[in-house]
What does this fold into?
Amino acid sequence: MDNQSARSTTDIIERIKLATSRLRKVLGENRVSEKTHMYEITTFESNTKVSAIVFPETSQEVSQCIKIANEFKVSVYPVSGGKNYGLGSTVPNVSNSIILDLKLLNKIYDYNEALAHVTLEAGVSFKQLEQFLEDQGGKMIMDSIGSTPQASIIGNTVERGHGMGLYADRLDNVCAMQVVLPNGSIINTGFARYSENKVAKLSKWGLGPALDAIFTQSSFGIVTSLTMWLKPKPKYFQSIIIHAPSDEKMSFMIDKFRQMRLHGLNVSMRIFNDYRLVAFNNQYYRLKQESQDYLTQDDIDKIKPEGTGKWIGIGGLYSYSQLHATAEKEFIINSLKDHDLVIDIIDKEEADSRVERNPSVKEELDFFYYKSSFTGYTTDKAINMCYWRVPQNIPNQKDIHEDECGLFWYCPSIPCTGEDASIAVNKIKEISYKHSLEPNIGFLFISERALDITGAICFDKCNLEESKRAAQCHDEILESLCELGYPPYRLGIQSMQLFDKTEASSMDVLKKIKATLDPNNVLSSKRYNTF
Ligand SMILES: Cc1cc2nc3c(=O)[nH]c(=O)nc-3n(C[C@H](O)[C@H](O)[C@H](O)COP(=O)(O)OP(=O)(O)OC[C@H]3O[C@@H](n4cnc5c(N)ncnc54)[C@H](O)[C@@H]3O)c2cc1C
It folds into this structure.
């Protein structure tokens, strides 16, 4: 380290000390912590150091914290649930940041059944809202998530994460954000920026330029609350499970579901491959032969339960009445029949009768029907796959950081066509096998026009050679899919350089917004930017 950088490091440390001491005075001793270790862990190697963690309780306190950050010119990084697994967890993009952990902003209010909305603060988790809605009589449901129930709704929304049901595009179905800007001022978006009006929580854009989206995947503000739109609990919900025997049939299925959605059928769908299905319940080290570096398709074919397709579609069909439900089920079956797909559509009567005949299927039907994440329930079942290459057994209490689970997500967006899905799958398989890793691939209908790929690279974080290969595999998949015309819709903290592909004129606008809102560059430095 030369003299100049040694001086500047001392300078940063001194400023952080002064800032934390001021934060202690404002928030109290017990809401500032220097136990940073847990916040420096993610699902891949990271050397980023966190300086302190603070726990504000209100938007006003968040504002005070960021004003102090400006005064001492130190970086702050907000986390809401801190469960951004596979993409960076709680680790900031730059070292020497103070984390604003928003978990104490945990209020839920203004629940409205008639107009189907609820307002919540940044720390509210999916589990908390699920319980809250149950406590209100279980008449309304949220759009749930595939991740841990402890993930936060606002953290997921600002990352432009996705749900399971018809409101899978999370950002599309929220409004009235309250945002603390990097200078500490507090603003509201949409109609919420006008006092005394009845539509702030109902109509998204308000009057004039709309601001909501600029606070997502950005470093322009801290979202402290928002209104989330809900759905009435569906009376005629049917669960759809489809097994497709080949990539070709998976393509066919995607084209068919696109058409159904374009024609207005209320159906949501996630499709994933057998590698992912096997990883939900099994672990690599228990399945592989000694000489093997990775499991091939042939291996997976031998391991997976009989009748499992190469691709599995799991979805929800939401009908208005029993008549609609019967007709829509028949319509789906007719649209897909004669194509070697195994189709199972389960309604309440069918679920009840299966349980009556064989009570041991109750747990399975809880997952697929009674407590389906397509009807607003949360589950941590999918977290099992993070243990795919970890030598220890999957524990009951899962803590993927503590248990050294290695995980990278790659998240390209592709057109909603079977042809594009096949092109992407071929490329992902080629690169995964080249790096001796299993292609664990999922597709999600984010709309009827585009699919979000959710690709997971699971590895053993304690194995340095494997970790390196996993990182290379991740980068190569993202780069190659970009070249094919499939850019990422979301990035991990280690991949922000891909943001540089943004056209120069747009980058210029973004830089100007950042410089105006955050002249000291104190908020989430280098998050979705490299300037
Ligand atoms: C098995 C598995 C399944 C998954 N399934 C899904 C899925 O179905 N859908 C999905 O979207 N993701 C999924 N994920 C990824 C991830 O776990 C979720 O996206 C999760 O919601 C992110 O964590 P969080 O909500 O706690 O957000 P946080 O970790 O709190 O936030 C994420 C990032 O957003 C920023 N941020 C947080 N709060 C604020 C704020 N208030 N204001 C401004 N910026 C903020 C920070 O930079 C932070 O790092 C899955 C992960 C795994 C391992």
The chain has 14 helices and 19 strands. The domain at 236-346+380-490 is CATH 3.40.462.10 (Vanillyl-alcohol Oxidase; Chain A, domain 3). Residues 78-86, 88, 102, 122, 145-147, 151-152, 154-156, 158-159, 161-162, 222-223, 382-383, 385-386, 407, 524, 527 surround flavin-adenine dinucleotide (CB under 6 Å). The two ends are 24 Å apart (CA to CA).
